[in-house]
Specification:
heterodimer; A: alpha/beta; Rossmann fold; 2 domains; 7-stranded mixed sheet; 37% helix; B: OB fold (Dihydrolipoamide Acetyltransferase, E2P); Chloramphenicol Acetyltransferase; 6-stranded mixed sheet; 4-stranded antiparallel sheet; 18 strands; globular
Chain lengths: 326, 409
């Protein structure tokens, strides 16, 4: 195992796949000359040259469409958005073209393309630069959605995403780029999409969290452990496809569940998870499913308000005790 | 068309009645006004009269049934007439006096095979239970009806089922356990429980005690009773002196002769004095009322009290004879009780507890003499009566008893 930062694990995944397949290339704002706004692509221009590591103008809809055209013609683009907040202007390409043309063309065209970049809250960046988009892209059949919480998953899942023949939305985190973690050094380290990771086994309560929320789940589990309760913590890792089996198996064991999600609450990933649990495990529930999400407002700017806005470990801990009737 | 006979509302406070006895057989012809059954209410056993002529087609209620007001008890009609339409109209309909407080509509879920159906409970209307707990109960054939839920709002949850199953699995009887006799709570006892609990929990009681010198009352009673005896008339009791003293004092202290009505925002002071007198019966107690006691003589009060007590012991009191008191007395002196505190009989503002007359040494002019003393303890509803008000009233009662000649004034 190697200890890598999240950005290094993502870079390794891209480099390995570009070494392996000359059709893979990286395109986005500042990815080449500047070595990436968050230094994810550092050294890649030098290694692969400007034909395969391409700086674009500030025109997300344009280069997203350029990538789709390339994918339709047999290449395997990786499109980096400097943040997913900027990708809203590219939604027509992602939602109407990437997600639907394979379906509308009766399978004549496929899109082996990865859209990736940091997602979710990133500090005092105010309302427009703090959006969490897992639920948004998961709304559209035809897109696969991955949201990673650690370097090892990032490497294994990004490599799988690049090799997948369908469009994949790959969600990272600005806050976590510098986070270090053990990463497998296995050759061709691939993690299949649709497989949740049971991070910690337990029988007292199931806590589900992806991306940064996974860490809030773990922190709450540690607080519960201090109280003498062993929580089961699940990182779904991929939102579409979602590993319902893992979640339902766990809920049938613990009889209660708290879903942590940095999204705004309405129609969030947590909302869908809560629906699926009551639908598939109704007779095993001893308490209503609770979710802990961002508040139902745009993200505030002030630090104290931002702390209040985001789901915190203490909130998760309290929700767990509530569904445990403690 | 067949006619329904319903459980009638026979007293103001009646919520349900027990059908004690049927007096008419099915198939008999009856006329309006005929007594067809007897019903035990919270106050007394009363006759149920038919409102219509006809043939008693069916006795729906069984003797011993406790039924809410408005429940179908019998069906009248023409001989041979079909009663099923009336029966189906009342099917499953029970009409409690008060509407349920929440969620009157549907039960939580449809009853499933193997699960006792949720209580048709008048109280909450539905059983709250987590899906898991419901399934566990069904799997183990456990009835949810009598389980107490420990979750929010009484929700039955996994741990409640687990503990119920654990206790069910315990051996049934531990050797040496003492048994008890189950006694059905009568309508009268229910009324006592409800009214006195309501009184003690809603009216803030305070208590004033006076030690009354009874020598003159003893002399006066002896003289009056000799007078009566010589004429072949019945005598009077010490209790009658107290009733009379209270009646006169209440007329002078209307603040004590009152009742507190929060809902109407008023305290009612009565211009008449109707004194309830607690009478102990084997199965409980009743309080027949001596009307207009302030304007009646000692002998009249004595005669009336005697008659009411006799009727009470023979269960002949009608509800209206027990309603509408403005003040109540309770006497345990005959049991040798020196003093006690009584619970106010709502809606009265006060009640007087009367103790035994004791022979006690008293100090008079520096010398110890043989004296006769009686404790009177007044319980007051502080919402209507303040301490000084109650004290002035009790002092007046004491003064009249210590100088009973003044009762003639």
């Amino acid at each position: 195992m190697a200890t890598l930062q999240l950005r290094e694990a993502i870079r390794d995944a891209m480099v390995e796949e570009m070494d392996r397949d000359s059709n893979v290339f990286l395109m986005g704002e500042e990815v080449a000359d500047y070595n990436g706004a968050y230094k994810v692509s550092e050294g890649m221009l030098e290694r692969f040259g400007e034909r395969r590591v391409i700086d674009t103008p500030i025109s997300e809809n344009g280069f997203a469409g350029l990538g789709l055209g390339a994918a339709m013609n047999g290449l395997r683009p990786i499109i980096e958005f400097m943040t997913w907040n900027f990708a809203f202007v590219a939604m027509d390409q992602i939602v109407n073209n990437a997600a639907k043309i394979r379906y509308m063309s009766g399978g004549q065209f496929s899109f082996p393309i990865v859209f990736r970049g940091p997602n979710g809250a990133a500090g005092q960046l105010a309302a427009t630069h703090n959006t969490t988009v897992e639920a948004l892209y998961s709304c559209f059949p035809g897109l696969k959605v991955i949201s990673v919480s650690n370097p090892d998953d990032a490497k294994g899942l990004l490599k799988s995403a690049i090799r997948d023949n369908d469009p994949v939305v790959f969600l990272e985190s600005e806050f976590m780029y510098g986070m270090r973690g053990e990463v497998s050094e296995a050759e061709d380290y691939l993690i299949s999409m649709g497989q949740a990771r049971i991070a910690q086994e337990g029988d007292a309560v199931t806590i589900i969290g992806h991306n940064k929320s996974y860490w809030r789940a773990l922190e709450a589990a540690a607080m519960l452990a201090d109280d003498g309760y062993q929580a089961e913590v699940i990182d779904p890792r991929t939102i579409r496809p979602f590993d319902w089996e893992a979640v339902i198996r766990s809920v049938k064991k613990t009889n209660r569940c708290v879903v942590v999600d940095e999204s705004n609450p309405f129609a969030s990933v947590a909302a869908e998870v809560a629906f699926q649990i009551q639908h598939r495990a109704f007779d095993w529930l001893d308490a209503p499913v609770r979710r802990v999400t961002a508040k139902d407002t745009p993200a505030p700017y002030a630090r104290n308000l931002m702390d209040h806005y985001l789901p915190g470990a203490e909130d998760v801990y309290r929700a767990c005790r509530e569904v445990m009737y403690l | 068309m067949a006619i329904a006979v319903e459980m009638p509302k026979m007293t103001d406070t009646m919520q349900e009645g027990v059908l004690v006895a049927w007096l008419v057989e099915e198939g008999s012809t009856i006329a309006a006004g005929d007594v067809i059954a007897q019903v035990e209410t919270d106050k007394a056993t009363m006759d149920v009269e038919a409102y219509d002529d006809g043939v008693l087609l069916q006795r729906v209620a069984e003797e011993g049934d406790a039924l809410p007001i408005g429940s179908l008890i019998a069906i009248l009609g023409k001989a041979g007439e079909d009663a099923s339409a009336v029966l189906s109209e009342y099917q499953g309909v029970s009409r409690p006096d008060k509407a349920p407080t929440e969620d009157p509509a549907e039960p939580a879920v449809a009853p499933k095979e193997g699960i006792a159906s949720p209580m048709a409970a008048a109280e909450s209307g539905r059983i709250k239970v987590s899906p898991l707990a419901r399934k566990m109960a069904a799997d183990h054939g456990l009835s949810l009806t009598h389980l107490a839920g420990s979750g929010p709002e009484g929700r039955i949850i996994k741990r409640d089922i687990a503990s119920a199953l654990a206790s069910r699995d315990e051996p049934e009887q531990v050797p040496g356990v003492r048994e008890y006799t189950s006694i059905r709570i009568t309508q009268m006892r229910k009324a006592i429980a409800r009214r006195l609990a309501e009184s003690k929990f809603t009216s803030p009681h305070f208590y004033l005690t006076a030690d009354v010198s009874m020598e003159r009352c003893v002399e006066a009673r002896r003289a009056i009773n000799k007078w009566q005896e010589d004429r072949g008339e019945k005598g009077i009791s010490y209790n009658d002196f107290v009733t009379k003293a209270c009646a006169v004092s209440l007329a002078q202290h209307p603040a004590v002769n009152s009742s507190y009505h929060a809902e109407d925002g008023e305290i009612r002071q009565y211009s008449y004095v109707d004194i309830g007198i607690a009478v102990a019966l084997e199965e409980g107690l009743v309080t027949p009322v001596v009307r207009d006691a302030h304007s009646r003589s000692l002998l009249e009060i004595a005669a009336e009290t005697r008659a009411l007590a006799a009727r009470a012991r023979n269960r002949q009191l009608q509800p209206e004879e027990m309603a509408g008191s403005t003040f109540t007395t309770s006497n345990l002196g005959m049991f040798g009780i020196e003093s006690f505190t009584a619970i106010i009989n709502p809606p009265n503002a006060a009640i007087l507890a009367i103790g035994a007359i004791r022979d006690v040494p008293v100090v008079e002019d520096g010398r110890i003499e043989a004296g006769k003393r009686m404790h009177l303890t007044l319980s007051c509803d502080h919402r209507a009566v303040d301490g000084a008000t109650g004290a002035r009233f009790l002092a007046a009662v004491q003064a009249y008893l210590e100088e009973p000649l003044t009762l003639l004034l």
